[in-house]
């Protein structure tokens, strides 16, 4: 918790810091990478840097954490950090790296705010940073310990056994283990980080959801080719599509992620769009493996049936589950060759289907898809804690769904 000395200072300066936090984080990253260019090799994804996603994520996390400290002075809002801690653990982040972030972030605050950063203001925000950093360090230590690894040993080599073309832009990779170490079981909905060496020799990380339950020997994930649309194409996705073949060996982290399937025994509703099907396909696979008899409702939106990645796996799993239904919405019309429960034209409209009472909801897809859907569920009386969502990006903060 914030000290009695720091709290009024943070409360008074939070509006100013929040107003300039975007400039602060931009200056922070630029300065840090100039001082520590090694962090761009294997730690930070430069695509996220180029698009500004990482800056937005950091800005949101600092502002939200500081606001939480001010609003609830009797406790530290550590729950806000769960998703970041899982992402950091999948990257092998070390405690000593938080000192580098601290020094460069405080430099950026002074650089942007100038004389407004008095010794008292600097000390108060220093306290905010270390409360946040130490909470993350402790959470990450627990995540490493639970897996029996250190930041240095979170990585493992896997060989590509299959490369499956799902759609024109989506490829599924099936990896098999190449050593005698036990395969650490993933939880339904988790992801791995893939670490690849780019053509210029720099290693880049990218997280991909596991799309099938573990069998002790394999991992499976799907990759959508990212077209820049006026910006640079996604270098990781294009490298995986164009250059990685069966027999190649990839460096992959242990599975992490805090958006996992609830085991309370309540009905489950999955709502996805496009490649957002990935983590939910993994959850469905786990349900099949567990021989679940839960009521399952799968809602998916896509351009058309040919664009529905992992379609055959999802349909097969739905058919194998005794109490599961699949509804689809296609932009190009209500045309399907699959044995779905219902097919509709246009955008997803949950008023067109009957949803179970007391269900737990999981969403994944573009923010433009998830935000109105979540609002509609809240209007229908679904409690916020019963709606979980996965965001493909640096972390939770850029979603702005809460």
Overall geometry? globular
Q: How big is the Rg?
A: 22 Å
Order of strands side by side in the largest beta sheet?
Answer: 4-3-6-1-2-5
The helix/strand series, from N terminus to C terminus, equals: HHHHHHEEEEEHEEHEHEEEHE
Beta content comes to 15-25%
Biggest beta-sheet profile: 6 strands, antiparallel
Overall number of strands: 12
Structural class: alpha/beta
What low-confidence regions span 5 or more consecutive residues with pLDDT below 50? Answer: 394-402
Distance between the termini: 23 Å
Query: What percent of the residues sit in helical stretches (DSSP H or I)?
Result: 25-40%
Mean pLDDT: 92
Number of distinct helices = 10
Describe the structure.
- By secondary structure, the chain is α/β, with parallel strands linked by helices.
- The protein has ten helices and twelve strands.
- The protein has a six-stranded antiparallel sheet with strand order 4-3-6-1-2-5, with helices on both faces. Strands 10-9-8-7-11-12 form a six-stranded parallel sheet, with helices on both faces.
- Helix 1 crosses helix 6, helix 4 (82-91) packs across helix 6 and helix 5 (97-113) runs antiparallel to helix 6 (119-147).
- The longest helix is centred in the first third of the chain and has 30 residues, at 6-35.
- It is globular.
- It starts with 5 loop residues before the first helix and ends in a 12-residue tail after the last strand.
- Mean pLDDT is 92; it is low at 394-402.
């Amino acid at each position: 918790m914030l000290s009695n000395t720091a709290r009024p200072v943070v409360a008074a300066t939070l509006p100013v810091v929040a107003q300039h936090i975007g400039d602060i984080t931009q200056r922070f990253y630029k300065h840090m990478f100039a001082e520590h260019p090694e962090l761009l090799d294997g730690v930070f994804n430069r695509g996220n840097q180029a698009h500004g996603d990482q800056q937005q994520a950091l800005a949101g996390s600092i502002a939200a954490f500081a606001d939480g400290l001010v609003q609830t002075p009797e406790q530290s809002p550590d729950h806000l950090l769960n998703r970041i801690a899982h992402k950091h653990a999948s990257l092998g982040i070390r405690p000593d790296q938080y000192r580098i972030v601290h020094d460069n972030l405080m430099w950026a605050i002074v650089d942007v705010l100038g004389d407004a950063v008095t010794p008292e203001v600097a000390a108060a925000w220093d306290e905010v940073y270390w409360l946040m950093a130490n909470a993350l360090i402790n959470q990450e230590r627990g995540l490493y310990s639970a897996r029996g690894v250190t930041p240095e040993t979170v990585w493992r080599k896997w060989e590509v056994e299959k490369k499956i073309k799902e759609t024109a832009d989506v490829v599924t990779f099936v990896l098999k283990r190449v050593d005698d170490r036990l395969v650490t079981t993933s939880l339904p909905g988790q992801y791995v980080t893939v670490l690849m060496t780019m053509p210029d020799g720099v290693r880049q990380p990218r997280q991909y959801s596991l799309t099938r339950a573990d069998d002790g020997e394999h991992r499976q994930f799907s990759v959508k080719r990212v077209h820049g649309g006026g910006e640079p194409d996604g270098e990781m996705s294009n490298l995986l599509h164009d250059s990685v073949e069966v027999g190649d060996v990839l460096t992959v982290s242990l599975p992490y992620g805090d958006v996992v399937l609830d085991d309370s025994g309540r009905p489950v509703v999955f709502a996805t769009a496009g490649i957002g099907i990935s983590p939910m396909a993994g959850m469905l696979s786990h349900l099949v493996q567990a021989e679940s008899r839960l009521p399952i409702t799968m809602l998916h939106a896509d351009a058309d049936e040919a664009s529905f990645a992992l379609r055959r796996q999802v349909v097969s799993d739905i058919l194998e589950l005794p109490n599961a239904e699949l509804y689809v919405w296609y932009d190009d019309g209500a045309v399907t060759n699959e044995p779905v429960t219902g097919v509709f034209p246009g955008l997803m409209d949950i008023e067109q289907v009957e949803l179970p009472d007391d269900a737990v909801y999981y969403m994944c897809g573009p923010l433009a898809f998830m935000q109105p859907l979540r609002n509609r569920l809240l209007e229908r009386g679904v409690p916020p804690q019963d709606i979980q969502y996965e965001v493909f990006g640096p972390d939770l903060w850029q979603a702005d769904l809460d």
